[in-house]
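Appendix B, record 7
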Amino acid sequence: MSQLATPSGVAQVPHGVAQTGSLAAGTAGTAHAGTAIVAGAAVAKGASLLTVILAVVAAVAAVAIGGIAYQQKHQDGSGSDASSSSTQEPTDLAGAWQDSQGNAFKIVAAGPGSYVFRVVPPCSGTSSGETVQVTGSGGSYRGSAPVFDQNSADCGAVLTHTDFTITVAADGASASYEPAAPPDLQGECHNCGPQTWTRLSYP
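Structure tokens (predicted):
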């Protein structure tokens, strides 16, 4: 079974796109896409039907729930206040988010117009995965996430990559995640549709 993974490396990412995978992103270099991110299922050419799942970015601790691995955001007791930052543009991508499936994740700024998070295969720990870079500004962002083969021995073989876009609402309270269909793959796809993320807080 192959799995499409989304951001989960340097920053935390949602996993709503993946049915059995989640995008995870860690702060300052570690994420899980968990949650993302975005997930889908597909079959590699010349192979038997494989399920490809797009991982979603998650957050701090890796947790396995219903076959979906993601990083769970730890609460610091201060609560999540999406309006806590008075200097950050509302449409800036950096910050903590929650995907459509309730997974919390964090996206980290890596420079002007650049952001990062880590994508981790849903069936493996946070030691594997791939750091995803997102670029853009003014509420419009794009990047490319790996598609993992869930049937591989290590559950982390990358079959290909797929593009995605993220559009942050004008008020910064939510964002739309739109993954493209994995290229050069065929078969059944799970959770390949768009997701809506809810902002939990700014950096």
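Remarks on this record: The first strand starts at residue 3 and ends at 4. Residues 1-85 have pLDDT under 50 and may be disordered.
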